[in-house]
Amino acid sequence: MPVYGLPPSTYRDGGVARPDPPWPRRPVETAVVLGGGGNKGAAQVGMMRALVEVGVVPDLVVGTSIGAINGAAFAGMPTLEGVYLAADVWRRLAAADVFPRRRFQGTWRFLDKRASVFPIDGLRSVVAGSLRFERLEEAPVPLVVVATRLEDGKEEWFTRGPALDAIMASAALPGLYPAVEMGDYRYFDGGVLDNVALSAALSSGARRIYVLLCGRVDAASPRFSRPFEAMFAAFSLALGARIRRELAAVPPGVDVVVIEQPGTAIFDPLDFSRTDELIDGGYRAARDVLAEYERERRLGTGSGERGARGRLRRVTARRRAHASSEPNAASRAEERPSGSTE
Questions:
Q1: What are phi and psi of 135, to 5 degrees?
Q2: CB 222 within 8 A of CB 213
Q3: Residues 6+ apart with CB under 8 A from 50
Q4: pTM for the predicted model, two decimal places
Q5: 314: enclosing H helix or E strand
Q6: Which residue of 40, 114, 248, 300 is most buried, as measured by CB atoms within 10 A?
Q7: For 111-153, how does the pLDDT look when each residue is reduced to its tens digit (9 = 90+)?
Q8: Within a 10 A sphere around the Cβ of 94, how many other Cβ atoms?
Q9: Start-to-end CA span in the chain (Å)
């Protein structure tokens, strides 16, 4: 059906700036998609550990916002050693490292005339210290980084070019960080348009997709008591609605394994005190869902609407009380490789 009142160039590409062909450069069977979620991204480190332990070897990694940062670590070293190194970075991280406090600090900074509340230099330094490749095309596992283009409002999938710049563009949360300039465009956090870029993995032709979330697909808005919490809650509802629509449209023959972050939501983006809890909870949730997925694969059944015939399985983490419990010293020690020390 024709669209009246707009030129086709306005909507023909669906609002997505895709990589130039040929893409992907090699066949993709298994993809890992990491969504955004700020400081909740620590949960993805535990999820990555569970993937490695069951032998998942991705042909493609797709990341948005904090998922781009964790995804770059996974694409750079998709091994237990790489996961442990990523966990160490998270455990050393403090709010002041990525949200540096100024001499005069207060809520008035959100209303001051400036590009952002915080500079992005601290986050850039943290990521640069652990990044294992300079250009995206040099990543051992092909990596797609998703960012929001300000000039035309398009979602851009970066697969080539300076890796650090692309990751910073994907993680530039509006208001907190300034827009990142690359070439002729300025970019904000990819989560503004696509917080969980399942569409990029599907476009690659992947037949098995693992989705690592910093939250829940069907989470209701939690109670809030401050204005900025209300804004975050509304933003989260919009993000959840998009991923539900995309999951409903997954084509037959594709397995999508969704691993949700257990526990309750964290409103304060400056709170890094729960890193161990998030890593441990992410690992436990992923371990459970991967075991369930393997059982269903063997039986040829699934939990999705079309799963009864084995054409599509969508598995999500169960709401287990222990997944959100505080980790003890034994569980943290279990995450270390043999012979390693903190």
A1: -120, 145
A2: no
A3: 259, 282, 283, 286, 287, 290
A4: 0.86
A5: strand 314-316
A6: 40
A7: 565 667 899 999 999 999 999 999 999 999 999 999 999 999 9
A8: 11
A9: 61
